[in-house]
Amino acid sequence: MKILYDHQIFVFQDYGGISRYFYELMNVFKKQEDIHFDLPLLYSNNHYVRKTGFLTCKPFLETINFRGKIRLLNFINKHIEKKFLCKKGFDIFHPTYYDPYFLKYIGDKPFILTIYDMVYELFPQIFSSRDKTSEHKKLLASKATKIIAISENTKRDIIKLFGIKEDKIEVIYLGNSLCFDVIEKVKGRSSEFPQRYLLFVGNRRVYKNFDTFIESISQLLKDDKNLYLICAGGGKFTPSEITNLEKSGVINKVTQCSFDDNILAQLYKNALAFIFPSLYEGFGIPILEAFSCGCPVVTSNISSLPEVAGDAAEYFDPADKISILTTVKKVIYDHDLRYKLKYKGYERLKNFSWEKTANQTMMLYKSIL
Predict the structure, then answer these.
(1) Which domains does the chain have, with CATH numbers?
(2) What is the average pLDDT across 219-231?
(3) What is the signed CA dihedral for 161, 164, 170, 171, rounded to 10 degrees?
(4) 3-state secondary structure of 198
(5) pTM to 2 decimals?
């Protein structure tokens, strides 16, 4: 069985959950005898494919940024991809994102589409009116042989928002990439981190509910002189975020940092709790990352988050500031509760792995041949 992947997400992301998902699939498949794959990729600055021993591509002007750089990188790789599509030397095509360019070349070959979330459909106000992602996603969903949804919640959203039949959609959960052998290498703690802190991970777009979260815990941060908030990733604070932090009186209690896997593991490992106040998630990989590092999880009680975290987290209503504050305080000031959440997280994590993700994906591939 031969699977053809494409360049899309490895052009648009240097780091990120979707490119990591496809990298982890291929990383498992390369060890299997009954499945082979191609990823035609001439140039990419993606961290995951660049570190593999099974994919070869060249960096693309890493130190030079200019307008149209991504479009040019996409154009070059798409030209290579089209040649592979036209040769038809594969059994199944699995695009890595939603550009429908391949429809005119694929002929009668089946293709699988993975849908990660429905953020574009549920929060259209945060995207440009010129953005065609949702339109393209809906088109591909209608034409795909099968759809992979990364949670039951995402599956329900696809059915509701796109009108796709239930039997066309297969739910396959994601895995965790912060492996125990990485965490074991993390000794002590960085002197740059405060002794007591809460952890927020990832981007801070509207649906991540960051501003409401800050307003909810601002008095807690001011009252507890030794408590801080670290925001890992997501880029530097925007002017509006700085204004909100200043208005809330916690500008000196909240910091932002970048990370690699070792730093991220250390941040999870030493945090009082990981807080995930999102209004919506397609899955929620940071929950699994926190579990793997023994970090107590406090998260929203909506979308896919209870589905992933199960009984290993404490939940709040993300629209209710009192609910957020009360739940956070309950966890950080109760040592026994944090200990219980830590070990429930370890148990819950056993339900998720990239090997399981890849094996279920392979079974789906086989089912359509």
Answers:
(1) 2-175+353-367 (3.40.50.2000), 180-349 (3.40.50.2000)
(2) 97
(3) 10
(4) strand
(5) 0.93
